[in-house]
Each structure stands twice: as C-alpha cells, then as structure tokens.
Write a structure and sequence with these properties.
The structure is a single chain. This protein is an alpha/beta fold. The protein is built from 16 helices and 13 strands. Among the domains are: 93 residues, no CATH class; 84 residues, no CATH class. The strands form 2 sheets. Strands 3-4-5-6-7-8-9-10-11-12-13 form an 11-stranded mixed sheet.
Length: 454
C-alpha cells in the first residue's frame, strides 16, 4: 500500500477545499476524468480534506477505488448524469453565474437535505418560538449544534448532514450560544442526555468548546454529555499536539469530576482510520480523562460493504479500549443511490462480521435505520410458512411506549430504507401508525409539530 507519510507529529491543521484541489490533483497525479468529476460534483456537495487524510489514510495506488478516497473526494455517479452535464455546461460560461447558482440549489433541494423529519418534527419550541440549533426527537435526549462547530476536519461524501456545510443558512442547524438550550433544559427535566454535534464540535478551540459545555454542568438533570465527532479519524493531533490539546483533556476531566458521564461518540468508517499510531494515542489520551468512547458508522457501498472490514474495524476499536456501538444504514439523503446497501445485504454483512467477534465486542448493534419514527433495527430475516420477513424492532422511538416493540416487514431484496418496506398485516395498529407516520405521539397528525413534552 502506498501511503505518503510526510507529516510531522506537530502538524498544524489546514483545511483544503475546492480552491486547493488543482494542487492536490497535480501532486497525486489524478486523471483529468477524476478532476472533472470532483470539480463538478463539489459545486453541489461539500468537499474538504486535510494533509493528515491525504498522507496517512488514502492509498494513492488504488485510486479511484480506494475506500478512503471514495469517502472524502466527490465522485462521478454521486449526481445524476443529466445534472452533471448541466453543471458542466453552465460552469464553462461566466455569464451563466446566476443560472449555475439556481441549478445548484435545485439539485440540492432534490437530494433530501433534511431526512427523517429533522426540520418538520424535531425542532423544539420555547414560549411558542422555534429554537435554533437544537433538535429534540427522543424524550430523554436533546441534540445541540454550536454554530462554531458546524464544519469538520474533512467531509465525508456520504454525510447525512451535508446540508450543514454548503453555506445555505436556511439548511443549517446552528446555535450561537447555549443560553436558550439551558433555558429549555430547565423546563424539561426529562432530558438527561445532551448530544453536542455538528458538523464536528471538535473543530472548535478548547475555550470555545468550554463555553458550550460548562453551562451544562449547572443543569442537575443532565447526567450524560455526548460529543459526536470524526476528529480522531481525520485529525487526531487535536488530542495530542495541537496547542490547546492539554487544555482540552482538562476540560474532559472537569466534566467527569463534576459527576457527569462524558461519552465520546467516535465515528470510524474504515479500519485504516484507527490503525495509525497517532489515532491510537489520541484515543488513549481521551480515555485517560475518564471519558467513555463509543464507536459508530454507517454501512456504505464502496467503503465498508464487506463483513471482513467490519470485523477488523470492531476488533481494532475493542483493542483501543473503545466500545463498538452502532452500524447504521445510510440515510436517504445526498448521494444516497451511490452509497446505499440493500437491507438484505446489510443483514448479511452485519451477521457475517458479528459471528467473528469476541464477546466484549458484541456490544455493537445493527443494521439500524435512524428513521422518522425512531431507530429501527433489522434483527434478521425470518423464513415462515407465510413467506420471508424482515424481523425488526424499535431501539428508540419518538413515543417511548414503542421502544423495544418487535414487528416484521415483507422481505424485499432491493429495499434499502424503512419506507420501501410493507409491514406485515399482523403489526399492531399503534405501531403501524407510528412507523408509517399516519399518527404521531399524543395524537399529533402527520404534518403537525410534535407536542411539547411538558
């Protein structure tokens, strides 16, 4: 494998995007066909990378099939051929700037920028006003999006939150300060968990992150603070040699010393991301603060759709002292058709990898869809006298009464998402209604806001 490991261990972060792409292409000898595809596709989908990803994670001898290259560089096939043709036509003429912007917005609108009802159902209210930069889908958990953390050290091409990064304020979740969050939590003591997410909160300086984290310690009902991040995979120096990395670890220690559980939700999509010395050192330093590390990622065609890859990944996570947590199903957004894996194949991949694991790694659950009604897990395929069925259950739900409830759907070898399945007629009416979206908790009809839990 040809990896160009040239970075010093005291490297400084520098984001590389479309403006630097020609230099990257020249350095690594990318073909003109690849260059054209990246330039056009990155007009619609976000593109960002950094030197660590380029030199430590991508195997340049396997381009374009290398999984890490597929993960961070936009590819031909992620957009419809007709859309690419139109973008190429408009981008060649400076006079068509307005038409190009209109075309880009139109394509983005067709890519389902906010899947699973994020804008429609998840935005909480306080005093009748919607709260920016927050989501409250599950009773005990609130998501919080600090505005300064709405980017990443590198962008995954499959990211279901791609709309956060394209510069359209109407598509973003972002909170400038935590005051509204703290007020909301004071009125909602049922919330025990706050997930600080993005983007990636770890792009913030420690001082900026502190301003969002420490106020949570004043809310006695908040017992678990989670941080969703890809930073250990894409910029592990954040925890080892960045100028404020020691201050960051002291912040983590402060949260733990305050009697709160600090859960570090690390996103590893491929074993290569956790196999570098600096990544393992970063995980060791994070764990030394008392934080717990949980690992999750989606199942992605062309990246990790192989049981052997997942087995290697989960074993590497366990060896690093982290907890394998979730294998997600790719959400129906962005370049979904390029990356999706049918549920039938997802079950085969999960079960094939799961069988190889030692007991301590069998904490992992999957394949799981974060769908509109909740987290739906596909437990397997049942053979019955009536035919084949997916056996499923809700691991989490908008309506807590539905958590853990099993149900089944008719087997479909091509279906890749919940709304492509036909539920079995034996499904109880309340479960059927919640899953199909005909009725939401407490009688809210489809299209209405979820009632205030208070």
């Amino acid at each position: 494998m040809s990896l160009v490991e040239t970075m010093p261990e005291t490297a400084r972060f520098r984001a590389l995007g479309p403006k630097q792409f020609d230099d990257i292409a020249q350095r690594y000898g990318l073909t003109e066909e690849i260059r054209r595809a990246v330039r056009l596709t990155s007009l619609v989908l976000p593109f960002r990378v950094n030197e660590y990803v380029l030199s430590h994670l991508i195997d340049w001898d396997r381009i374009p099939d290398d999984p890490m290259f597929q993960m961070v560089f936009p590819q031909r096939g992620m957009l419809a051929a007709e859309d690419l043709r139109r973008l190429e036509e408009l981008s060649e003429s400076p006079a068509d700037g307005r038409a190009l912007r209109t075309a880009i917005q139109g394509i983005r609108g067709r890519l389902n920028p906010h899947p699973s009802g994020q804008k429609k159902f998840n935005v909480p209210t306080l005093g009748g006003a919607e709260l920016p930069g927050m989501q409250h889908k599950y009773l005990e958990t609130t998501l919080y999006f600090p505005s300064q953390g709405q980017s990443c050290h590198s962008y995954c091409t499959y990211c279901f939150r791609w709309a956060q990064f394209v510069g359209d304020v109407d598509l973003r979740f972002a909170a400038q300060t935590p005051e509204l969050l703290i007020n909301y939590l004071g009125r909602h003591p049922e919330v025990t968990d706050v997930l600080v997410t993005g983007g990636d909160p770890m792009v913030m300086s420690t001082e900026r992150l502190r301003s969002h984290i420490e106020p949570l310690l004043s809310v006695p009902t908040v017992r678990n603070i989670r941080i969703g991040t890809k930073s250990v995979a894409y910029w592990p120096y954040r925890y080892v040699t960045d100028s404020d990395s020691d201050d960051l670890l002291r912040l983590f220690q402060r949260v733990v010393a305050a009697g709160r559980n600090l859960a570090f939700m690390a996103h590893f999509s491929h074993p290569r991301e956790i196999q570098t010395d600096i990544a393992r050192q970063a995980l060791s330093r994070i764990r030394s603060t008392g934080a717990l590390v949980y690992c999750q990622a989606p199942l992605i065609a062309r990246v990790n759709d192989d049981p052997a890859v997942w087995s290697e990944l989960w074993r590497a996570e366990l060896a690093a002292g982290a907890v394998p947590y979730f294998m997600f199903v790719e959400r129906d957004t962005g370049p979904y058709d390029y990356f999706k894996v049918p549920l039938a194949r997802a079950v085969e991949i999960f079960q094939g990898a799961y069988r190889t694991l030692p007991g301590l790694a069998r904490t992992v659950r999957g394949p799981v869809m974060s769908a509109t009604p909740g987290k739906v897990m596909v437990d397997g395929v049942m053979e019955t006298p009536q035919g084949r069925f997916f056996q499923m259950r809700l691991l989490q739900a908008r309506d807590p009464r539905l958590v853990g409830r099993p149900f089944r759907a008719q087997f479909d070898e091509d279906a890749a998402w919940l709304d492509e399945l036909k539920l079995d007629d034996s499904t109880p009416r309340d479960l059927m209604a919640a899953i199909t979206g005909s009725v939401w908790p407490d009688g809210a009809e489809d299209g209405e806001s979820i009632p205030d839990p208070s």
